[in-house]
Task: structure prediction
Amino acid sequence: MRRIIVQKFGGTSVADTEKIKNVAKTVIKEKNNGNNVVVVVSAMGHTTDYLVKMARDLSKSPSSREMDMLLSTGEGVSIALLAMAIQAQGYEAVSFNAMQVGIFTENIHSKARIIKIQTEKLKQNLNEGKIVVVAGFQGVTEDGEITTLGRGGSDTSAVALAAALNAERCDIYTDVEGVYTTDPRVVPKASKLKEISYEEMLELAQAGAGVLHPRSVEIAKLNHVPLRVRSSFKTDDTGTLILGVEKMEIDRPVTGVAADLSQARIVVCDVPDVPGQAAKLFSKLAQENISVDMIIQSYARKVSNTNDIAFTIDSADLEKAKETLNQLKDNIHCGEIQINSDIAKVSIVGAGMIDRPGIASMMFETLANLGINIKMISTSEIKISCLVDKSDADKAVKALHEEFKLASDIIADVKGDLPNV
Ligand code: ADP
Ligand code: ASP
Ligand code: MG
Result:
């Protein structure tokens, strides 16, 4: 069988019929290179946001099943239009939704994980010479229920298909030319990275760099799928290649800066300092499928023998978290529950920070010099995150990007000239 290339085009790339015609050209070019092509598309433009808005106009907390029924429709429009555009240019194409392909997920709405993908139908159509167009973002449970993979999840559909089909490469076509040292819309001088490791990309994506859905990077890493982020509009540009760390030359401590503006902080005050409290709290949240990010537990106060437990969640889960915590309050005998959504997580990421002391203090000093108060801190081997006021996020990203010498006009000189820490 010929090599299979999976291509994915995001919302901006298929925002109108002119853009869809251009996408068809890019797809056909890959087909003419002698490859079998599977194309994954997102909903057109801001369709998904528009669908979410309509749902919210009708209900404060719409049922997650109906949300998935609604949001999955967006991708249904773009697959059919793209298949028509390809056919109109004289090539055979066929579109499939997730149910038709058999993209099976867990039985969880709004952020389901893919369990398995049936490849027979895809391979059969490819063998017949057709270009196969698949809806991103959607899945189906064993019981035939429609699910979605979480916002931005079409990237994950594409990488999972590439893994299942043993594809040569997965190309993520988007509205920027690759992965940058930070969001180029926030810092116009951000530099485009030629390569980045799976590990760093995963941390950046989880830290809020919206260019790739975190799960897509995880699947690419697990299955060794070569992943490329490139421009839909400048298709001759090779973009950014995401690959294993052993192939990377690490020449600076920090590779990228990211901000996540969609976090909410919850502080559970005056929790009795006895064993099992954190277990009760977080297992209940886990049962409700609410992922927790940063966690801090304060020292126990001597007089009251209580502590405070603070943690962050995705603000999309806030309503559900409030309900869950209210049910739990009497069980853990805690005091007040404080909630703050006006916060952002700002992170620096870099495999080069391993065993380099001083990077964290450089970050804290940069924020301190701007008078930015740090509300929480968390670290991994290759990431340091600080929770700050949402209004400070852009300022913090710009300053950190400068502090770690990531701007495009200086990055070329940085090699061998690392900050002395
Ligand atoms: P698509 O609709 O193609 O999936 P997204 O909007 O999901 O596109 O992702 C692309 C956007 O990600 C860019 O327009 C950019 O603003 C944002 N972004 C955030 N961080 C980064 C980064 N480090 N590098 C590149 N783009 C980034
Ligand atoms: N259309 C979905 C969203 O807007 C999925 C995607 O774009 O990847 O989140
Ligand atoms: Mg996206």
